[in-house]
Automatic annotation (TrEMBL):
This is NAD(P) transhydrogenase subunit alpha part 1. The transhydrogenation between NADH and NADP is coupled to respiration and ATP hydrolysis and functions as a proton pump across the membrane. InterPro entries: AlaDH/PNT_N, AlaDH/PNT_NAD(H)-bd, NAD(P)-bd_dom_sf. It comes from Inhella proteolytica. Residues 4-136 form the Alanine dehydrogenase/pyridine nucleotide transhydrogenase N-terminal domain.
Length: 376
């Protein structure tokens, strides 16, 4: 197939969907790969590196006109206009954006959103949420350390002892677990909260303490089980008790990394303004849920401002919405391998696109086909 790799146009997006490493594999499979000039530059993939593995360099129109277009983010209206009806699009297309899906369907695309893949063992190698959240969790801790006016580890020096930083992690999915592991490596003392009780063991195995909030009703227990490994919104009774426990830890914390998300819903509010006021001057919050709070405002903290670092009540609140883009070389390398693995499900041995009807991953990721939105 003719594969097109456009340069990402969304503000702050530095990643690329195909690296020279995966381009080489596509070439070996018999595809032609056309890369927009400069598409990989921000991810440390030079035009020369693509040419060295046999890619052709092109402009945006050339990349979007391919039979199979590989993207990081969803194409905008102008980019969709460059795409051919009947072509295949793979990317992080936002399955919850009904308007966006409609636009892709109207453009006649067969569109796959990789974020919609099930969280199963077979889908692990193409799980873009995991590959990117893992890096976000790591980098969030480094961002916090960079803004925090103290060190993370306990240090005993001739000039006195420095106390270890207290880090609170809210939401212990993929990003939260990596944040715990990273903060631990830096020497912090860590406590973590999640709605899912199964997380406790993982938190403890990384050397952190789990913030216990008992489930008192059948409704609370049922909600805590979540669905498909994901959290469901918890009843207000449980959230109120969680808030009391979290408030105590946040008041004593030096750093809070919040990662709590519920698919298709606003991020839960876990760090209120009152809690921020209770924090010590110089403390830092990194809100990975930035821009995803109620109405798209705030994140896990209502004071978070998307894509800004603000100082409120003496606390630094970091609202970077695309942390993986700050480590574009690694995030692109992992994302590009996710894409390569997904394509193995829809491209046959003759290097032709074939849509299996009985593959749960393909069915879950299929968002548009034949002019219709197909999202399951
Ligand atoms: P996510 O990004 O959707 O959410 C982050 C975390 O926030 C989750 O752990 C969630 O429980 C938590 N959360 C939601 N509301 C909260 C609240 N009010 N308070 C505290 N925490 C709250 O999650 P994710 O990182 O994408 O992981 C989702 C699930 O998928 C996890 O169970 C993870 O282990 C699982 N997973 C499985 C596989 C696999 O089996 N292949 C791969 C990746 C992830």
């Amino acid at each position: 197939m003719l594969i097109g790799v456009p340069r990402e146009s969304a503000a702050g997006e530095t990643r690329v969907a195909v690296t020279p490493e995966t381009a080489k594999k596509y070439k070996a499979q018999g595809h032609t790969v056309r890369v927009e000039r400069g598409a990989g530059l921000a991810a440390a993939c030079t035009d020369a590196a693509y040419e060295a593995v046999g890619c052709e360099l092109t402009d945006a129109a050339g990349a979007f006109a391919a039979e199979l277009v590989l993207k990081v983010q969803r194409p905008n209206a102008a980019e969709l206009a460059l795409m051919k009806s009947g072509s295949v699009l793979v990317g992080m297309l936002n399955p919850f954006d009904a308007e966006g899906l409609q636009a892709m369907a109207q453009a006649g695309l067969t569109a796959f959103a990789l974020e919609a893949a099930p969280r199963t063992t077979r889908a692990q190698s193409m799980d873009v949420l995991s590959s990117q959240a893992n890096l976000a969790g790591y980098k969030a801790v480094l961002m916090a350390a960079n803004h925090y006016p103290k060190l993370f580890p306990m240090l005993m020096t001739a000039a006195g002892t420095i106390k270890a930083a207290r880090v609170v992690i809210l939401g212990v999915g993929v990003a939260g677990l990596q944040a715990i592991a990273t903060a631990k490596r830096l020497g912090a003392v860590i406590e973590a909260s999640d709605v899912r009780p199964s997380v406790k063991e993982q938190v403890e195995s990384l050397g952190a303490k789990f913030i216990e909030v008992p489930y008192e009703t059948a409704e609370e227990k049922e909600a805590a089980e979540g669905v498909g490994g994901y959290a469901k919104p918890m009843p207000p009774s449980w959230l109120a008790r969680q808030a009391v426990e979290v408030a105590k830890r946040v008041a004593a914390a030096d750093v809070v990394i919040s990662t709590a998300l519920i698919p298709g819903r606003p991020a839960p509010t876990l760090v209120s303004e009152e809690m921020v006021k209770s924090m010590k001057p110089g403390s830092v919050i990194v809100d990975i849920a930035a821009g995803r709070g109620p109405g798209g405002v705030g994140g896990n903290c209502p004071l978070t401002v998307a894509n800004q670092t603000v100082q409120v009540h003496g606390v630094t609140i970091i609202g970077e919405t695309n942390i993986p883009a700050t480590v574009a070389a690694d995030s692109s390398a992992l994302y590009a391998r996710n894409v390569l693995d997904f394509l193995k499900l829809v491209i046959d041995k003759e290097a032709k696109f074939t849509l299996p009807t009985d593959d749960d991953i393909v069915t879950a990721c299929l968002m548009a086909q034949g002019g219709e939105v197909k999202r399951k």
